[in-house]
Amino acid sequence: MDNPYAEEAAERWGGTDAWAESQRRTSSYREEDWRRCTAESGEISAGLAALMASGVAASSPEAMDLAEEHRLHITRWFYECGSEIHRGLGEMYVADPRFTATIDRAAPGLALYLRDAILANAAR
């Protein structure tokens, strides 16, 4: 899978256990694996976007459940993503405009909603 940010990611996280685990796992993924991974991610985003559009609070059980699915998705496909790492990812999603823009393609404001759901989920 072509990643325009691969070099930057390697510089930032290349020495971590999570990076090594992600590299080990993804090196064996076939096109079908990437399709399944992307589809799962899309389902989580769509669910969060629907909740957000319906006015459901990011701290609701439904949103927190989807934030937990997001965390488990990362664990299943890339590396062990505990609550602390997940919180850091949530913060990065709103601090880095590239992540925000990518997530907000599904729905404007989704990056912030996801971050808030992640924080609420990690606190419960």
What does this structure look like?
The protein has 124 residues and is an all-alpha fold. The chain has 7 helices and no strands. It has one domain (18-123): Globin-like (Orthogonal Bundle). The chain is 75% helix and 0% strand. The longest helix is centred in the middle third of the chain and has 23 residues, at 31-53. The N and C termini lie far apart (35 Å). Residues 1-26 are annotated as: Disordered. Residues 5-121 form the TipAS antibiotic-recognition domain. This is TipAS antibiotic-recognition domain-containing protein.
How is this fold's topology laid out?
Blueprint: H1 6-13, H2 17-26, H3 31-53, H4 61-77, H5 83-95, H6 97-104, H7 110-123
Helix pairs in contact: 3-4, 4-7, 5-6, 5-7
Summarize this, please?
The chain has 124 residues and is an all-alpha fold.
Low-confidence stretches: none
CATH topology: Globin-like
Helicity level:
over 70%
Percent strand: under 5%
What is the SS-derived class? mainly alpha
Instruction: Write down the Rg.
Output: 14 Å
Task: Report how far apart the termini are.
Answer: 35 Å
* Gross CATH architecture: Orthogonal Bundle
Number of helices: 7
Shape, per Cα inertia axes: globular
CATH class wording: Mainly Alpha
Number of domains: 1
Task: Look at the structure and give the mean pLDDT.
Answer: 92
The number of E-state strands comes to: 0
Write out the CATH superfamily name. Answer: Antibiotic binding domain of TipA-like multidrug resistance regulators
Question: What about the largest sheet?
Answer: none
Question: H/E series, N to C?
Answer: HHHHHHH
Region (Disordered): 1-26
InterPro entries: TipA-like_antibiotic-bd, TipAS_dom
Protein name: TipAS antibiotic-recognition domain-containing protein
Domain TipAS antibiotic-recognition: 5-121
